C-alpha cells in the first residue's frame, strides 16, 4: 500500500469484519483527517529499514512525563527480537531524557488464563 491518504475505510483494504465493526459498533462514517493520513502508513507491510520502530518509539517517548514516577507507556511485542529492537531504539533516542526503560521477555511458555476470567486482586 503506497503512502497516500485514505478517503474511506475501504481504501485501507480492511477485512469485512473490521469494516463492520467500524461502521456498526463505533459509528464511524469515514476516516478522520488524522486517520486518513496515518492509517495507510501504519497498515503498510513491514519493510526492513523503513523507520517504523523509530516512529513508534518517538510516539511513546513524546508522551512520557518524567515527573510521574509510575510505568507509563507499555510496549507489547509479538517476538523477542522485536522487543529487543524496540528497546535498543528506545535507549538511543531516549538517552538524554532521563527516562528509564525495561525490557521483559517471556523465556518459557506457561499455562495461561484468560484475562477476562481472572478476578482483579485488590
TrEMBL record:
GO molecular function: ATP binding; hydrolase activity; RNA binding; RNA helicase activity
Top-rank EC class of the record's enzyme: hydrolase
EC number: 3.6.4.13
Keywords: ATP-binding, Helicase, Hydrolase, Nucleotide-binding, RNA-binding
Pfam families: DEAD (PF00270)
Written domain comment of the UniProt record: The Q motif is unique to and characteristic of the DEAD box family of RNA helicases and controls ATP binding and hydrolysis.
Stated role: RNA helicase.
Full protein name: ATP-dependent RNA helicase
Biological source species: Prunus persica (Peach)
Amino acid at each position: 500500500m503506497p503512502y497516500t491518504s485514505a478517503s474511506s475505510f475501504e481504501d485501507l483494504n480492511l477485512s469485512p469484519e473490521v469494516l463492520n465493526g467500524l461502521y456498526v459498533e463505533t459509528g464511524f462514517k469515514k476516516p478522520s483527517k488524522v486517520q486518513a493520513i496515518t492509517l495507510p502508513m501504519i497498515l503498510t507491510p513491514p519493510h526492513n529499514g523503513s523507520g517504523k520502530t523509530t516512529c513508534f518509539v518517538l510516539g511513546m517517548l513524546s508522551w512520557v512525563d518524567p515527573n510521574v514516577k509510575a510505568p507509563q507507556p507499555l510496549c507489547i511485542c509479538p517476538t523477542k527480537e522485536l522487543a529487543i529492537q524496540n528497546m535498543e531504539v528506545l535507549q538511543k533516542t531516549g538517552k538524554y531524557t532521563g527516562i528509564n526503560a525495561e525490557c521483559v521477555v517471556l523465556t518459557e511458555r506457561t499455562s495461561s488464563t484468560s484475562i477476562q476470567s481472572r478476578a482483579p486482586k485488590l
